[in-house]
C-alpha cells in the first residue's frame, strides 16, 4: 500500500491542480503517416484523368521505340511532350521502378582519381612535408591573394611559401625548389615525402614532371599522397 496522493503533495508542497494538470499534459507518441499516399492517376494539360496503368503502357511503348536508352528524366519530357501529361520526374521514376525499366546508373570515371594518404609515423624533420593553398580578400582593392605554404609535419615550421595574386603550377614548382634549398636537400639522396591535396597546381603535368626530375636519384618519392 502506498501513500495517498494528497499526503505526498502536501509534503512536497505541490498543489493538486498542478499535479493533475501535468498528468494531462504528458506527451503522446507521435504517429507518422509515412508521407503522402501514392496517386493512382495523372492529369493531362486539358484536365483529363489518365490512370497509372495507361502511363505505364506509354512508358513501355517509349522504351521499345526511340526511348530505349532514355533515363527517367528524358522519359518524363517525352510523356509531357507527346501525351501532354502533367507529371513530375519523381512519379516517372517510381513507375519505371515498378516496371523494372530503369537504366543502370553510369559510373563516372575521374580523370585524376582521388588518392588518400597513408598514416605514417614521423620521427624527425624533413621526413614529411605538406602543402595547401589558401586565399584571402584584399580590402579596398576588391580582389583576392593566394598563399601556398609548405609545412614540415614534424617541427610544424613553414619551410617555404608562395604569396601573390595568383598561384599556378610554376609557382608551386618554384616554392618546392626553394623548400629543398632551404633545408639543404636539393642534392640529398633521401628527400622528404611531399603531400598535397588534388588541386590543379599539384596534379598538373608541369608540377609532377619537375618534382619527379628533382627526385630522379631517389627511390620511392611518393608525390601523390594528398592531405
Automatic annotation (TrEMBL):
Pfam families the record matches: HTH_21, rve
GO MF entries: nucleic acid binding
GO biological processes: DNA integration
Superkingdom, taxonomy of origin: Bacteria
SUPFAM superfamilies: Ribonuclease H-like
Ranges where the Integrase catalytic domain occurs: 109-227
InterPro entries hit by this protein: HTH-like_dom, Integrase_cat-core, RNaseH-like_sf, RNaseH_sf, Transposase_IS3/IS150/IS904
Role this protein plays: Involved in the transposition of the insertion sequence.
Name of this chain's protein: Transposase
Protein's organism: Thermacetogenium phaeum (strain ATCC BAA-254 / DSM 26808 / PB)
Amino acid at each position: 500500500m502506498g501513500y495517498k496522493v494528497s499526503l505526498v503533495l502536501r509534503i512536497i508542497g505541490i498543489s493538486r491542480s498542478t499535479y493533475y494538470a501535468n498528468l494531462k499534459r504528458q506527451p503522446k507518441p507521435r504517429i507518422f503517416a509515412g508521407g503522402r499516399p501514392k496517386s493512382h492517376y495523372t492529369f493531362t494539360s486539358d484536365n483529363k484523368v489518365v490512370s497509372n496503368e495507361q502511363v505505364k503502357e506509354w512508358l513501355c511503348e517509349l522504351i521499345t521505340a526511340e526511348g530505349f536508352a532514355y533515363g527517367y528524366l528524358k522519359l518524363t519530357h517525352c510523356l509531357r511532350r507527346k501525351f501532354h501529361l502533367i507529371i513530375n520526374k519523381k512519379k516517372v521514376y517510381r513507375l519505371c521502378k515498378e516496371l523494372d525499366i530503369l537504366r543502370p546508373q553510369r559510373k563516372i570515371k575521374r580523370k585524376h582519381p582521388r588518392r588518400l594518404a597513408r598514416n605514417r609515423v614521423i620521427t624527425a624533420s624533413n621526413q614529411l612535408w605538406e602543402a595547401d593553398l589558401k586565399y584571402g580578400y584584399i580590402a579596398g582593392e576588391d580582389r583576392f591573394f593566394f598563399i601556398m605554404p609548405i609545412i614540415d609535419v614534424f617541427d610544424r615550421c613553414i619551410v617555404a611559401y608562395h604569396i601573390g595574386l595568383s598561384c599556378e603550377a610554376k609557382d608551386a614548382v618554384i616554392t618546392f625548389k626553394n623548400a629543398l634549398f632551404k633545408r639543404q636537400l636539393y642534392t640529398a639522396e633521401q628527400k622528404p615525402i611531399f603531400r598535397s591535396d588534388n588541386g590543379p597546381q599539384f596534379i598538373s603535368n608541369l608540377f609532377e614532371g619537375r618534382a619527379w626530375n628533382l627526385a630522379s636519384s631517389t627511390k620511392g618519392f611518393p608525390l601523390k599522397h594528398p592531405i
